[in-house]
Amino acid sequence: MKKEKKHGGKTAIQNNSLISAFKKKLKSVKKPEKKPKSIPKDRTKVIAVGVWSLIGSLVFFAFLAVLLSISTRSALNDVERQQTQNSKQKEEVSIVAGERFLSGFITEYINVKNENDAIEQRHNRLMTYLVKESDEIEQESLFDISGAQGDRVLNNYTLYNVKQEKEETLFQYKIEYSNIVRVKKKEHEIKKQALLNIPVKNKEDQFAVSGTPYISEIYDLKGNIEITKEDREEYDGDQTAAIKEFVNTFFRKYAEETKDDMSYVMKTPETLNGHLVFGDVENVSIYKNGEGFEISSVVIFKEKETNIPVKERFTLFVTKNSGQYYVNKLKHQ
Predict the structure, then answer these.
(1) Contact 152, 118 (CB under 8 A)
(2) Is the pLDDT of residue 146 over 90?
């Protein structure tokens, strides 16, 4: 009996040892560390910065495009202005050169000597002024004066007008000439005036008559042209009397003094320097113009020797500095 107890106790001790060993084994096994779950980063600020940067870039390039467009347009305008100016200068030179070219033609065309040799020579010389056309036979008849019964003599001619037409330029001359006829061996002179119209073509500085010259009536160059002035309210304040007094003093100096003297009261000095004497100022109109005044008036000057009045309309643009009136601009009208 004693032996069984001993065996049972031994068994219990062994069981306890196994349990103890198992626990130690469990403790020796390391548990894997739990990694913290990754929290997604907040990219809102990054996206916002990117969007605003893109918008800023677009605005910048748009602004740059506008500046380039303005610069380009300005350059084009400068080119157009230069071309227009060159065209006007060329037109002025062309008129002068054209008039010089036609001076010989007019003399040949108007003067007619009713003699066979003179008629033939006239015809040949006039043909040299014409444009070259394929139908030379028709051109040959342009200056045919067969049947003439008298002479024609050019007394005077002046350029009257120049009209630019689609494909040519029409030069108009006021001519004074005489038709001379003989009746019973007696010579009669009939004086006339008319407008001679000559169509002309040009290629740079080369000219040619492009059609038959023709006579027309002289028309009046004087026109009935009206100018509508802006309806403005005149200034009638506490400076009115002082301004009118300044205008009188100014134009007296303008008539008598030098440019150096006028530099004290004018931005761009000018003067009559004694060529005329001051008479009076009429029709003074004063208008407020920003911080200054616009003054319109008729000024009467006189010739020293004959006292003949000379009237001129002026406009002064005046400001007041340190109690003194000063002319920033003088405009002749």
Answers:
(1) no
(2) no
Q: Would you say residue 318 lies in a domain?
A: yes
Strand 324-332 with 214-216, pairing: unpaired
The token pair that represents 218 in the structure block: 């002289």
Answer yes or no: do 174 and 289 share one domain. Answer: no
Domain membership of residue 33 (yes or no) is no
User: Contact, 243 vs 293, CB < 8 A?
Assistant: yes
Question: Same structural domain for residues 165 and 244?
Answer: no
Predicted TM-score (pTM) of this structure: 0.58
Q: d(Cα 103, Cα 86) in Å, to the nearest integer?
A: 26
The more confident residue out of 62 and 12 is 62
- Beta strands (DSSP E) in 204-291 are 206-209, 214-216, 277-289
Q: What is the CATH number of the domain that holds 98?
A: 3.10.450.540
Give the model's pLDDT for residue 299.
96
Q: Give pLDDT tens digits for 291-300.
A: 999 999 999 9
Two tokens, residue 164: 């630019």
Its domain, for residue 145, covers 92-216
User: Does 1 reside within a domain?
Assistant: no
Rounded to 10 degrees, the C-alpha dihedral 152/155/159/162 comes to: -10
